[in-house]
Amino acid sequence: MNAISEKYRQFTQWQQRPHEVMPMSEESHVCPTCGTSYTGNYCPRCGQSAKIGRYSFKKAMLLFLDVWGLGNRGMFRSIRDLLLRPGYMIRDYLKGMQMAYFPPFKMFFLLVTLSLFIESGFNITGKNRIAESIGEFNAGFFDSQSEVEGTSESDSELSEKQKQIMIETLRLARKSMEWTYQHMTLVSLSFLFLFSGPLYFWFRRCPAIPDLKYSEFFVALVYISNMLTIYSVVLGFLCLNPLLETLTYPLAIIPLKQLSGYSYRRTVWYIIASFLLFFIATMLCLFAFGIIMGLVAMIQGA
Ligand SMILES: [Zn+2]
After folding, report:
1. 186 CA distance to ligand 1 centroid (A)?
2. How far away, in angstroms, is 62 Cα from ligand 1 center?
3. Do residues 75 and 102 touch, judged by C-beta distance below 8 A?
4. Which of 112, 129, 135, 157 makes the best surface tag, with the fewest CB within 10 Å?
């Protein structure tokens, strides 16, 4: 029991310790490209890395990954840290350790692309899960449409005009669902942007970073969303129940807690409060939108 708690203590210590760059070696190098002699990791004249020796398999692999901008800047370290010490890693990044980690927005776009790739067939069952769920939705749509069309004047209260409105609404719902699937990146970034507002209100003066800027907080949220996408990519590849993915969302509490220095209880309360604010704001917008649409209809009708 003591051994376990000691291991846990070491783990939490490791979590909070920033990434350490290896000390520079005193060894001197002669650059194979320009012939300059120097000590350090890079040639000061042409920038070639001192590590370049004979062409190796690892080197070839990194160059191959570099085609997609992946072979540099600690991608593997960023993934590991996002899973094991996300909030502390984000804090270190915001404090300026930018060379140690993969850039947040680049990671965001790459992960979203990867997850679309996986959802559309690159998974263990080889099934296109996007087409499947659009298909299911369309089937439901045509059922409700024929239901609406099938009701005759006599057995329902629906007039021809009401039927038309219902069919039109269903068509709009279908279109917006398809649009959402095709613009997943845009949709999730806008959601993040809208939700960041109320959340920032509670975290802008947190104990760990008392002068947190909004732009920094937004970068933190992009990293947190990257963390969730990593989980969803793994679950999606294994084609597990989509419900499991929903269960990973609360894991966002961990980085927010580590980043802010608030207690878990406080972090959870602030997230709930932000959701409420976000919900109320959305409802007010919809309400205002409804009133405007109603007024427009009235003016047109008059
Ligand atoms: Zn050189």
Report:
1. 43
2. 20
3. yes
4. 157
Q: What would the pLDDT profile of 191-206 be if each residue is shown by its tens digit?
A: 888 889 899 999 999 9
Residues with CB under 5 A from ligand 1 (ion): 31, 33-34, 36, 43, 45-46, 48
Cα of 37 from ligand 1 centre, angstroms: 8
- CA–centroid distance, 50 to ligand 1, in Å, is 9
Cβ contact 101:77 at 8 Å: yes
99 and 230 inside one domain: yes
> What's the CA gap between 227 and 234, in Å, rounded?
11
Q: Are residues 237 and 266 in the same domain?
A: yes
Pairing of strands 28-30, 37-39: antiparallel
Q: What is the whole-number distance in angstroms between the Cα of residue 29 and the centre of ligand 1?
A: 10
Residues 192 and 291 in one domain: yes
- Half-sphere exposure at residue 77, Cβ-oriented, CA atoms within 13 angstroms: 19
pTM of the complete model: 0.79
Name the domain boundary from 139, 156, 181: 181
Contact indicator for 257, 267 with CB cutoff of 8 Å: yes
The one-letter code for the residue type at 10 is Q
Q: How far is the CA of 52 from the centre of ligand 1 (A)?
A: 11
Residues 6+ apart with CB under 8 A from 192: 218, 221, 222, 225
Which of 127, 150, 131 has its CA nearest to residue 139?
131
Residue whose pair of structure tokens reads 């080889």 in the numeric block:
126
Question: How do residues 219-233 score in pLDDT, each as one tens digit?
Answer: 999 999 999 999 999
C-alpha triplet 29, 34, 40: angle, nearest 5°: 30
